[in-house]
């Protein structure tokens, strides 16, 4: 269910991930999920003055980036082992 809070969290996550991608691209660094998640983890660890909303958005974005990586990794392993059930 969409709420004002969930919309604000989504907007903040998009802003944070977008900032990270732009900084990485500007530095000519590959923008893979794992790299973006590491940048966000570093930002979360290095700054103590994050607002609660920003900290929550950082934590949620990191979790989603990590979960997506794990899900893709699991599907790749299924394909290699011949147990892939997807079409």
Description:
This protein is an all-alpha fold. It contains three helices and no strands. It is globular, with a radius of gyration of 16 Å. The model has no long low-confidence stretch (mean pLDDT 84).
Structural class: mainly alpha
User: What is the subunit organization of this protein?
Assistant: single chain
Task: Please describe the biggest sheet, giving its number of strands, its sense, and whether it closes into a barrel.
Answer: none
Could you spell the SSE succession in H and E letters? Answer: HHH
The number of helical elements comes to 3
- As a whole number of angstroms, the C-alpha radius of gyration is 16 Å
The rough form would be described as: globular
Strand content: under 5%
Helix content: over 70%
User: Could you list the spans in which at least 5 consecutive residues all have pLDDT below 50?
Assistant: none
Overall number of strands: 0
* N- to C-terminal distance: 29 Å
The chain-level mean pLDDT equals 84
In short:
The chain has 87 residues and is mainly alpha-helical. It contains 3 helices and no strands.
Question: What's the SSE blueprint?
Answer:
Blueprint: H1 4-26, H2 33-46, H3 52-81
Which keywords apply here?
about 90 residues, mainly alpha, 3 helices
């Amino acid at each position: 269910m969409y709420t004002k809070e969930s919309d604000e969290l989504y907007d903040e996550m998009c802003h944070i991930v977008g900032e990270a991608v732009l900084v990485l691209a500007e530095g000519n660094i590959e923008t893979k999920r794992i790299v973006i998640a590491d940048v966000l983890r570093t930002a979360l660890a290095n700054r103590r003055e994050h607002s609660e909303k920003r900290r929550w958005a950082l934590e949620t974005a990191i979790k989603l980036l990590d979960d997506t990586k794990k899900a893709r990794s699991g599907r790749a392993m299924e394909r290699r082992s011949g147990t892939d059930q997807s079409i």
